[in-house]
Amino acid sequence: MSHSFQVDLRGIVDLLSHHLYGSPRVYVRELLQNAVDAITARRVAHPGVPTSVWIETPKRTPDGTLRVHDTGVGLTEAQVHELLATIGRSGKRDELGFSRQEFLGQFGIGLLSAFLVADEIRVQTRHEGAPTVYWTGYSDGRYAVESGPERAEVGTTVTLVPRPDATDWLAAERVVELARTFGEMLPVGVRVDGELITVESPPWDLGRAELFAYAQETFGFVPFDVIEVKVPEAGLRGVAFVLPRPANPAAKAGHRVYLKRMLLAEGAEGLLPEWAFFVRCVIDASELRPTASREALFEDGLLESVREQLGDQLRGWMLAMARREPQRLQQFLSVHNVGVKTLALHDLEMLRLVDEWWPMETNMGRMPLAEFRRRYSTVRYCTTVDEFRQLAAVAAAQNLAVVNAGYVYEPDIIERLPLLDAEVLVDRLDPSDLATRFDTLDPATDLALRPFLTIAQRRMDPLGCEIVVRAFDPPGLAALYLVDRESTFQRQLRETQEVVDEVWAGVLAAFERAEAATRPQLVLNHRNPLVRRVTALPSPELVGLAVESLYGQALLLGHHPLRPADSALLNRSFLGLLQQAVPAVGPASAEQPAPEAQPEGED
């Protein structure tokens, strides 16, 4: 024995208000949608019929209700029972003899949204060749169908009797605002209390100067540029406004999306590829699908295709600008380089654009990678800004050109350069490589420095650092702390072993190598006058303090992280040098008065 489901209409309305729709304001959109769809259905059979929708707010109605009138197809009594009283059944289905693809609504629950603000919905409707039908629905699930006076014209009037707690949603100012937000682009004239809220031309039909004004009014910025976008298979037309200021790549870019000229969302996501966060779009589409709430785009194969094609059109705009307006492209890249660099990770044309036009920081001045490659045989680069700052001047003094790739995506972009030219040589600069370019000392000087090196190395051994004396430019740099990648890895490995349990410590020990092979180097510059004086100091204690001070200075100049042992050394060496520099004052001497000043000229 079969039974029918029992539907609690109050529960359905609660479900709509709390889980489907984001706000009660959608009731205006749904009423406009039903009215426009009814007009669309009527125009299929009678193209020349009047097409208008007009709303009367409680400001105009004598009984405080809201009324929505349309010149649409209307309903017969049988259709009223079939369509208005069945939840989830759309009035745009084939029962009316039309393809649903022509209509805004697709889910058959639009009228229920009116119960978000009304306790009672009255529908007066007349279908051509049929009598006028009066339908009344209540929020408790009851409805009644009655006959009444004949409606003069074919069409429908929907009347909302407001709930006591929802009168603000039916106020004239609020209804005008919502009708304009959702329906100002509709191809059907819409009026609220006699005021026309639809516009003559949508944004995608405006001229360039008008589009700049539209962006200023709608988004609050004057765009860097305006790009026309089209995807015929989705019935999509629109414009993309390029932001005049940097955008946050982590923030989701929202776009103003219309479906068949009805606003879907003011901040729709997923329309463009993730890298295109530097534009804001206003588009209209006839074939894209909305979600059930009609507040977002439904993710399907068509939307994915649209996303790819819009990305191609934005990419084409950039490439065209590179050919025709290179200076303007430079301005664009200075603002939105992160988005372009993101695309360059996957697209060879964008990689070529970044290579030719984006000026990167080098120790030989700012220049694009293409120019850097033309000047120097190898693209050497540092992966962090601190490393570049530490090594740039020293490398330049050795005639070694280095790129600062310490910014987002730049190391990956440099590593992709061989895809553009197989002959490109790319090399990540290891700080220890610089030591191979420094001049060694002559044998006599090297032999004379052995006692100094023995004392200095003894002071540095507890810190795991090797002392080396070389001659290099610039002479003003006394010491350089160099750590290769292997040394950095081994240091981090040892620090991790100290804080994990024995099992993990044993696992990590398998990756540990001999200390001597991986120690960082403190390279003292023998061309520096201070270093030469330090190497000649007679006191081992002074030698140790001076070397520790040079070590601390090299760490700070190189922006290296300081371990607790390093901080303690800096403090100890500073105080030790002060004690050596300031002579001790005995108690008796401290109590003696200062000598009187003698007259000028006397001995």
Task: Describe this structure as you would to a colleague.
With 603 residues, this protein is of the alpha+beta class. The protein contains 21 helices and 21 strands. The strands form 5 sheets. Strands 5-4-3-6-2-1-7-8 form an 8-stranded mixed sheet, covered by helices on one side. Helix 6 runs antiparallel to helix 7 and helix 14 (450-460) packs across helix 19 (540-557). The longest helix is centred in the middle third of the chain and has 24 residues, at 301-324. The protein starts with 8 loop residues before the first helix and ends in a 12-residue tail after the last helix. The model is unreliable at 91-108 and 597-603 (pLDDT under 50).
What descriptive keywords fit this protein?
39% helix; disordered C terminus; 21 strands; 8-stranded mixed β-sheet; elongated; 5-stranded mixed β-sheet; 603 residues; alpha+beta
Short structural description:
The chain is built from 21 helices and 21 strands. It starts with 8 loop residues before the first helix and ends in a 12-residue tail after the last helix.
Strand content: 15-25%
Determine the mean pLDDT: 85
Number of helices: 21
- SS class: alpha+beta
Rg computed from alpha carbons, rounded to a whole number of angstroms: 39 Å
Strand order of the largest sheet: 5-4-3-6-2-1-7-8
Termini gap: 130 Å
List unreliable stretches of 5+ residues: 91-108, 597-603
Strands, total number: 21
Can you summarize the main beta sheet? 8 strands, mixed
Helix content: 25-40%
Name the shape in a single word.
Answer: elongated
